[in-house]
Specification:
The chain is α/β, with parallel strands linked by helices. It is built from 25 helices and 15 strands. Strands 2-1-3-12-4 form a five-stranded mixed β-sheet, with helices on both faces. Helix 2 (81-90) links the parallel strand 1 and strand 2. Helix 18 crosses helix 19.
Length: 554
Amino acid sequence: MKRNKLIASALAALMCASALAGCGGNPSETKESTAAPTGETTAAQVSADQPSWKTDTSDCTVTWFFAYDWYGKKFNEKDNLFDKKLYEETGVKIEIQTGDTDKLNMLIQTGKLPDIITLDANSTQRKLLEKNGMVQPLNKLRDEYAKDLVVPQSMIDWYTAEDGNWYSIASFYYGEDNIKTNNGFYETHNQNYVRDDILKQIGMTYDDLRTKEGFLNALRAVKEQNIQYNGQTVVPYMVLFADKAAVQVAQQLGASQEDANGDFQSFYTTPQYREAMLLFNQMYQEGLLTDASFTVDKSQLEQEVAAGHVFASTAKTNVSNARNSLYAADNNAKMLYAGQFTGDTNDKIMVPANNNMGWTATLINKDAKNADRIIRLFAYLNQKETVLDNEWGVGGWTLDSDGHVVRDPAIMAVSESNPGEFAAKYSGDLAWTTDYTIIQGTAPKDGGVWTDDVYLMTHDDRITIYDDKSFSDVAPEAGSNEAAIQARIDEYMKQALGKIITAATPEQCEQELDNALAELEKMGLSQLTQYQNTLFQQNKQKLGLDFAFPGNKK
């Protein structure tokens, strides 16, 4: 999610002004800033059979800032059924504001934050807000106003700050407790996908793709047989090097950020990363991987997949939407899950889960006058019914006797044929505090054409998906020397990858990698790794782990 770095001062002034808007009046009116909630009824006064959000349903407008400038939702309680239901149930309207990280930093510096702030869960800005007393403790608000706010206890434990308070509610958080309660499971985005029709055409099977050599042979067959689709030559393999493709393949080959002694290490220094570089170099020299993988962005790669021009790719995020478009145009062209492949040093695949600590964190500004209404809004958004409304659309689902969603055929048809209309009318696009294990555990038994595929990719007994929390929260503090080192290293490796992978021979490939590693060391890689190891050990201690990578466990 790359963000533009242009900030308009006029817009910033507008956002600062709107941050002062409160409940019970015109949201454009400026009100005196105070941390005192508007409501006087506490959770203790709410009857046992009445949800907390129904305590006060008077008109209330809250400002909610999302540090994602691509987020385009506009709250519409008149035409969107989810927004309408939310407003009728809670009395709350949401004034949505968006921006990039620079805009968030500006709001933090000025102290004029909106009522609610949503940002990356592992961002240093989250910790800055917590440490500097700029946000309110959710544990205290929950105890006083919304005892029915359901969140995993393990999430509260993970996000409890040094002062003993809990400030951040995460979306898409996975812990042993909510997985067990909701029949959920860990997920990974580190997966390979291939065109099922072409795999059959070249006479190979999915079992053939589970080793590095077998995967290579499939790519070679596509090239040697000059496979065509709609008059275009099919590219054997296309990935997105700008977005972790090299690291993901290294992980499939056995790489981990924890060494055998339990210390944090850089992927770049692992033997499996070297193996990945040599594999990509081999692909490139054999014409199985083209220059496009170095230059395309995510949308361009998705377009190529959707057009049927790609046989194989890595990463769920590159194909999950595009394959729907491809299938809609041609029911014979399915891009299906192909597992992962082993390499020279591993016979068992162990890949990290996808952001178990959560994708985003949401916090309440210390100056929000309506904190009581906000914490009750969170309680409303986190109840099972609302979570499923947001996912499947208001009126778009019921539960069968086994607790699985049964989708309304008419609304499902809209979601599949016109996703824009579905989003505008039925769903909320407000999963920013959602516990996704609720959706996992109630998933429809019949998921349509992808039913078997989705089950296999989330229940593949050939792989181990391990908890990645220890590795996720090791980012250097913004403005620190280590943060500058990491930025320089990340930028350098984006440029160095092309030179390494396109080297004329395997020997030159390794030499280019060695040159890059020497340059990384000059930039301060060891200093960065030592810094991250301190955080890594703290994270493991918090989780009670001696080893975080299952391959290291004795």
